[in-house]
C-alpha cells in the first residue's frame, strides 16, 4: 500500500549514505573522473563543499580538453577566466572545432608549463602573442600550416621558445616551424603530413620557404622522433632536419626513431649520421626506415643502454640477426617493454636468404625472444606469415602465453591456427569458396550453436589460442589481422578495388577463435580483419557479453566477401556494448539499414562511427534517427556504394540538424570509389583520420608515453 511504500523510502533515506559525508580524499578521487569544464562550470555551483573541492590543485593543475567534444569557445573562455592561473598543464589537442580566437584566452594561464595545441587552428601572429605571455612554458605541441611565417614571431615569443625543452610539431607545409627558436631542445617530435600536390593540382617542393634557413639546435637533444605520411615531399623535408644531426650527433641522444612508409632511401648524410651514432651514443629506443637496416651491419655496431622500445617494422631482418645483434645471443632485456616486428616476415626464422615467407617459424628463436624480453607489455607480430610447426609445446600461442605482462598484442590470423586440428581436418566446403566478388555460390553451412554455453563446451577450450587468451587476462588491446589484408581505403590513393586472398593456414580461423577472445575481461580495443571462416559471427556475442570494458571495435572482411554473414550476431553483440566509443566496420555489401542502426543505438557511449563498404548501401532515414537517438556521436564517416547525390544530401541533413548542439560534429558521407575521395579525405581532422578512419595496426606503433 502507499503508506508502506512511503515508510520504506523514508527508512532507506535515513539509512542511506550521503555523498557529502565521504572524506575529501575520496571525493577528490571521484571528481577526478569528471571533465574539468563540468567541475568548474557546473559541479562547483551545487554546494559550498564541492565549490571548494572542485578548485583543489589536484583537479586544476592539469586540464584535459582533448576529447571533451562538448566544449565550445564560451566554455573555454569562462574556464580560463575562473582557473587560468591555477593551470600548469593544458591539453587541447585535436580541438579542431574551436575557432582560432579561442587560443587568445590561453594567455590567462600565466603559469603554464606544458601546452598541447596539436590540431588547433592557430596563426603565426596568435602564436606569437600567446607565447609572449607564457614565460614558464617548457613543453609545446603545435601545427605548422601553410602561411606560417617565423618572421612574425616577436622577441618575447622567441625568448619563451628558447626555454622550451620539449617540442612536438605537425607539419602541413615545408618549414622548420619554431624549431630554430628552441635552443634548449631535449625532445623533438615531428609529424610530416605534407601533401605532394596542392588543392589546385600543382606539385609541391620540399624546399623550405624563404627566410627559413636558420639551423636547428640539437646539442642537448635526447629524443628525436619523426613520423612521415606517404609522399616524397615529406622525405625531402625530413632530410633537412636530419642534415644538422649528421654534422654533429648529440652526446645525450638516447632515442632515435624514424617511421617512414614505403621506400625511404639512405643517403651519404644519413649514413654518416648512423656511423656517428654507432660511435658516440648508447640508445634506449630505436626505429629506422627498412632501407637503412636491410643488408647493412648497422645493428651489429649500435650500442644500447637499457632499451625500452624497438621497432623493425617491414624490415627483412632474420631471426638469427635479431637474436645475435639485438638480443646479443639471449642477453637479458628485461627493460624492453615494447617491440614492433610488424611486416618483419623473416624475424622468427634463422635465415632469410632461401626461405619462403610461408615456411614454418623456428620456435627456438621465439622462445629466446620470450625468455630475454620477459617484461614485454606491447608486441606486434602482424603483417607476416608466422606458421607454427607440428612440434608439441612449441606453438607460437603457447610460447607467447609466458608473457604475463602483455597489455597489447597484434598477431596475423594464420599464427593462431591449431596446427594439429588443421592437419587432421579436410577442407570444408566453406574453405573452398573463392574469396572474390564474383557469382555467389550456394553452399551448405554447418549449424553453429547460438547458445554460448554449448558453444564453449564444443572444442575450443582445448585450442592453443583459447589457452593463450586465458593466460593473458589483463590484455587491453588485441589485433588479429590477416597477413595479406589491405584496407579498401588507403592513404592518399584511390580506393583499392581488388584484395588478396587470405593465407591458406588462416582458412580454419573463425567463430570459435572469436569466442575465445571473450575471456579477456579487461579488453578495451579489438581489431579483427580477414577471418575467412566466420560462418555466423556467434563469437562476437560472447565478446559483447564478457568484455564490458570494450571501447574500440574494428571489424573488416569477416567471412565470405559476397555477403555479410555475421550481421545478426553483430547486432546482438552491440546491444551489450554500453562502453563502446569507436566503431569501424569495413565489409563489402554491408547494409546500413534500420535494424543495424536500431541495434547500434544501444551503444549509449558511442562517439565515432566509420563504415567502409564497396557496393554497400544505407538508409538515410535510419541514419538520421540514429543520430537523433545517440546524442554523444560527433563523428560519422560512411564510404559506401551510394550515389554522390544521396551521400551529399544525407551529409547536409545531418550537419544542418545536429551541428548547433554538437560543436565537434564531423560528417563525411561519400562514394568509396569516387575519383575525388582523396580530396575529401584531406579535409578530415587528423585526430579522426589517424585514430579510426584509416585502417592500420596500432600496437607498438610508437614508444609508450612518447607524449603526454
TrEMBL record:
<dbReference type="InterPro" id="IPR045627">
    <property type="entry name" value="FBXL18_LRR"/>
</dbReference>
<feature type="domain" description="F-box">
    <location>
        <begin position="16"/>
        <end position="63"/>
    </location>
</feature>
<dbReference type="Pfam" id="PF19729">
    <property type="entry name" value="LRR_FBXL18"/>
</dbReference>
<dbReference type="InterPro" id="IPR001810">
    <property type="entry name" value="F-box_dom"/>
</dbReference>
<dbReference type="InterPro" id="IPR032675">
    <property type="entry name" value="LRR_dom_sf"/>
</dbReference>
<dbReference type="InterPro" id="IPR036047">
    <property type="entry name" value="F-box-like_dom_sf"/>
</dbReference>
<dbReference type="GO" id="GO:0031146">
    <property type="term" value="P:SCF-dependent proteasomal ubiquitin-dependent protein catabolic process"/>
</dbReference>
<dbReference type="GO" id="GO:0019005">
    <property type="term" value="C:SCF ubiquitin ligase complex"/>
</dbReference>
<protein>
    <submittedName>
        <fullName>F-box/LRR-repeat protein 18</fullName>
    </submittedName>
</protein>
<dbReference type="InterPro" id="IPR047948">
    <property type="entry name" value="FBXL18_F-box"/>
</dbReference>
<dbReference type="Pfam" id="PF12937">
    <property type="entry name" value="F-box-like"/>
</dbReference>
